[in-house]
Amino acid sequence: MLDRKFVRENPDRVRQAVEAKRESADLDGWLALDEKRRALLIEFEQLKAQRNTASEEIGRRKQAGEDATEAIASMKDVSSRIKQGDKLLADAETALAEVEARFPNLPDDDVPRGGEEANETMREWGTPRSPDGCLPHWDLGEKLGQMHPERASAMSGSGFALLTGEIARLERALINWFLDVHTTEHGYVEMNAPYLVRAHALHGTGQLPKLADDMYHMVEDDLWLIPTAEVSVTNFWADTIVEASDLPARFVAFSPCFRREAGSAGKDTRGILRVHQFHKVEMVRFTRPEDSERELEELVGNATTLLERLELPYRVVKLASGDLSFAAAKCFDLEVYSPGVGQWLEVSSCSNFRDFQARRANIRFRSQPKAKPQPLHTLNGSGLALPRMVISILEHHQQDDGSVRIPEPLVPYMGGRRQIG
User: Is 346 in the active site?
Assistant: First the structure.
């Protein structure tokens, strides 16, 4: 959420941000509603002052033994108008909140303007494997008898994965190794958080109202399946004032993720490139505003460390404004090369939200023990996302005999096995 004073005083900047992110928001309507609400607030305060004056007059007259009938009638009239004004103010506040919930976060000044074509590759690591002689993961998985798309479709429909044997264990090994590295080397506290949340939690992190059609809603219980552990972990401190001594705070969580992908029909349908249910390890950071840029660099480093140890070529891409998420001010995508698929696959998006999520979720901190609370900054990034990591390992470490070499860090998590197949 953007600061109301900022929106009021900088409408052109907000308008530019909406355009740069290719969003739609009724800024003019918001400004009109805000002006109406502020006028009602002034009138409301004046009425309360009149009520106080009338009350004092009633007390004075009764104490002097005078007739207070006129003053009592006046106070009743003012009280009635205050009650009406209270409702008008509440309605104006609701209308204002509904409109401003559609305002996206402002892209940082150093974010390139434009759509996906304006994304900037910041650096690359490793040499992508040639696709020659490399089976795509869907063919390799079926050849190994450990990837079963037909059985998944029979029980759940399209867009679901079913893995067995060593490939299933490979995914579990990755998850456990990711968590161990983040908690023992990178300073994160592990969290096991709910997979079902209320709407206000998704509003706090910015998924609602924009992405309602892309998520699964359990109507009977009015609960939503999380699209990422970011939602649960960030809301850990919702409606909380954090002490400065607790910052920076870093949490990591594993969760299944559920996404309807309503706008992605027909895209990447082969294999396990795009599925409705997948696993992910998520890193979330809470920090002072002045430290968030450095924290973003560290977040990217935490994720790329994993990719390098797994010997997977990757690139770091700074997203342009039109490719940024609704809530992000800046984002770096980490993409690994998949020789079988023949394209770069996103396995992490490391984002700085500045104070946008903190304002929506009401997460504040005190810079000093008695200082006025202010919004902190939140960041998150996948560390890392499955099943595209499985795809990359199967394809990049595929051997001539059809087996798959297991990267060295995962060998202990695979029971000492060094290859699949």
Answer: yes
- 274 is a catalytic site residue: yes
Kindly provide the b/e burial profile for residues 116-151, where b requires at least 16 CB atoms within 10 angstroms of the residue's own CB: eeebeeeeeeeebbeeeebbbbbebbeebebbebee
Q: Which of 81, 198, 260, 274 is catalytic?
A: 274
Neighbours of 5 (CB within 10 A): 8
Which of helix, strand or coil describes residue 78? helix
Distance CA 285, CA 65 (A): 67
Catalytically annotated residue among 255, 325, 348, 349: 349
Classify each residue of 166-182 as buried b or exposed e, where b means 16 or more C-beta atoms within 10 Å of its C-beta: bbebbbebbbebbbebb
Residue 403 appears among annotated catalytic residues: no
The residue from 35, 185, 346, 408 that is catalytic is 346
Cα separation, 396 vs 304, whole angstroms: 17
388 tagged catalytic? yes
Residue among 37, 232, 388, 392 flagged as catalytic:
388
Indicate the pLDDT class of residue 265, thresholds 50, 70 and 90: low
Instruction: For residue 292, indicate whether it is catalytic.
Output: no
Active-site residue among 51, 259, 354, 364?
A: 259
List pLDDT tens digits, range 80-136. 777 777 888 888 899 999 999 999 999 999 999 999 999 999 999 999 999 988 999
* Average pLDDT score over residue span 14-31: 93
In this prediction, residue 202 carries a pLDDT of 98
pLDDT digits (tens, 9 = 90+) for 198-209: 999 999 999 999
pTM of the model: 0.90
> In the chain, what are the helix, strand and coil shares in percent, each to the nearest 5?
45, 20, 35
User: What is the tens place of the pLDDT at every residue in 297-308?
Assistant: 999 999 999 999
